[in-house]
Amino acid sequence: MGPQGPGLRVLGLRHGFDGGMAIELGELSLSPGALVVLTGASGSGKSTLLYLLSGLIAPQAGQVLWGGTDLARLSERARDRWRRQNAGFVFQDFHLLTELSPLQNVLIPAGFGRFSARALRGRAETLLARFGVPARPRAAVLSRGEQQRTALARALLGDPAILFADEPTASLDAGAGREVADCLHQLAGEGRLIIAASHDPALIARADLRLHLAHGRIGGAP
Ligand SMILES: Nc1ncnc2c1ncn2[C@@H]1O[C@H](COP(=O)(O)OP(=O)(O)OP(=O)(O)O)[C@@H](O)[C@H]1O
Q1: Distance 22 CA to ligand 1 centre (A)
Q2: What count of other Cβ atoms lies within 10 Å of the Cβ of residue 154?
Q3: Which residues contact 197 (CB under 8 A, 6 or more apart)?
Q4: 59 and 51 in contact (C-beta within 8 Å)?
Q5: How does residue 1 score in pLDDT terms, banded at 50, 70 and 90?
Q6: Which ligand 1 atom is the nearest neighbour of the CA of 45?
Q7: Does the C-beta of 46 come closer than 6 Å to ligand 1?
């Protein structure tokens, strides 16, 4: 089992840019152990909602509750600390340092967490093996699917209870995308809360909860 956090609860969330409202959300509860996929047209607010839920940006109004902690009320520094302790991130374009090995990439966030250097190395090796990433000298020679699974291993190094993924399969071919979607589904089954923004039918098909955004609001089925 992975670590199980309290889940996220959102109340009265509002956030806009330049007068326009990007997100308006009355109430939303996201339970641990679920793969939640945010869908919606370009500009509907998926990335902004991910940033709000992960404390990367503070909302103009409302609460983002993780148990008794309201991320919206924390200072930027306290939100950074919360993210380091509880959250992992995966992006569309991997953000790997391609001259480093997969193992070195996974160990980049080391030092922030609660594990010793030795335990971290063991965790990194276990995660890479779990996701089927070969031990190659440089990340540059990995396939795109292997690169994204390396990024996934890196996001999990600190054993976060919540994982955010912004279009994690969008730059992969269908087969590699399905593998990453399967990994995310399995990670949710272990008790983590996984929140992804995606247009990918393979990832949407594996979701426990689909939230369709239109003009910053959660509406009916996609
Ligand atoms: N930093 C910003 N400054 C100004 N406007 C922004 C900013 N970030 C997002 N927006 C606006 O907020 C709205 C929602 O954008 P967001 O990036 O969250 O949408 P999205 O659904 O993730 O789109 P995409 O699928 O293209 O990534 C858009 O109208 C966008 O232009």
Answers
A1: 7
A2: 25
A3: 37, 38, 39, 46, 47, 49, 50, 165, 166, 167
A4: no
A5: low
A6: 18
A7: yes
Q: Which pLDDT tens digit goes with each residue over 144-194?
A: 999 999 999 999 999 999 999 999 999 999 999 999 999 999 999 999 999
pTM of the complete model beyond 0.80 = yes
Tell me the residue ranges of DSSP E strands in the chain: 8-17, 20-30, 35-39, 61-66, 69-70, 87-90, 162-166, 193-197, 209-214, 217-219
- How far is ligand 1, taken at its centre, from the CA of residue 122, in Å? 39
Task: State pLDDT tens for residues 73-130.
Answer: 999 999 999 999 999 999 999 999 999 999 999 998 776 566 788 889 999 999 999 9
